[in-house]
Amino acid sequence: MTSCEEEDGMTNRVLDLDGLDALVGLLRADGRVVVGPVLRDGAITLAEVESVADLPSGWGVETGPGHYRVRRRADTAIFGHSAGPQSWKRFLHPPRRSLVSSDGDGFHPARDDTPSYAFLGVGPCDLAAITKLRQVIGGRAPFVVAAQCTEPGEACFCASMGCGPAAGAGYDIALTERVDEEGQRFLATSGSAAGGALLARVPARDASPQDVSLAEQDVEAATRRMGRAMPELDLRDLLTASRDSTHWEAVAERCLDCGNCTMVCPTCFCVSVEDTTDLDGNAERAQRWASCFEIDFSYLHGGSVRTSGAARYRQWMTHKLSTWYDQFGTSGCVGCGRCIAWCPAGIDITQEAAALSTAMESRGEQR
């Protein structure tokens, strides 16, 4: 990118904090519920925001296996943090959703009261996750304001999954934040006609080649600072060859079967359907998030198919990195690192993949 108006119609403009605040205001004025990162309960979570003042200015995070802490930054960056405990999945695929209810007047299908969302500050890994999740569940597309990653965390490995740190397809506007001696500003790049139209309404200046170059350098630097990486081999072949590996038992000795990894994962979509009734004659059928780590999840014809922790972890990892390809043509993992940071046992999916690779090589099998 070398100018504010590219051959493909992409627009590059530079916003200051007032311009970003105006962007939030315009999205709200257009009838959208703006959701973005906020500092709450010792974590950077996602909630409705009304202005830039709600965003986590000057806050970053420290992550690692079984470790997540917010920390004060030395600057006022708003998007200088890696993935938190929540993902955008909860707004597109709610943890619990009523399907149908009944009372004395009959049956009542649930109403779709999902608001028109605008997601602000979507990291590249989560942008990829939104695309993958919507491929599974469908639904109305939100307006997406992505935030390109310039500061990956220790648990991040999106570069090795092809999902960052640069934002891929699917955004309406992408922001690249920079804080230096010239102040705090955001290179805003349109990714859709709707994004370009909105940028035209926001107080901003046209981007210079220098603005674009600095943004590209910051994103490229983030690639080199990525905390982790998946092994450089075909993960589908690896997991197929490792079905009977004894390493699954070694993982199971540490795994608590708590399901945290599936709950924080931005693409896990499994659900259970439950019926409830009360003494007044009311009934409801509802859908809730489920996990392949639940013993009842694989219940079939009188018993559970996967009764051991080893089998359940193998199912999760194999589906995420291998058989997801068979269903959807892509991996189910975006390298956000949430499953690593929020595992109470500190189990690291990249290390487990590497261990399986080493075990396969020791058996003399071909990659």
Description:
- By secondary structure, the protein is of the alpha+beta class.
- The protein folds into 2 domains: 12-224, no CATH class; 235-362, no CATH class.
- Helices cover 30% and strands 24% of the residues.
- It has an 8-stranded mixed beta sheet, sandwiched between helices. Strands 7-6-14-13 form a 4-stranded antiparallel beta sheet, with no helix packed on it. A two-stranded antiparallel sheet has the order 4-5.
- A hairpin with a 2-residue loop joins strand 6 and strand 7.
- The radius of gyration is 22 Å and the shape is globular.
- The chain starts with 11 loop residues before the first strand and ends in a 5-residue tail after the last helix.
- 40% of the residues are buried.
- Residues 1-7 have low confidence and may be disordered.
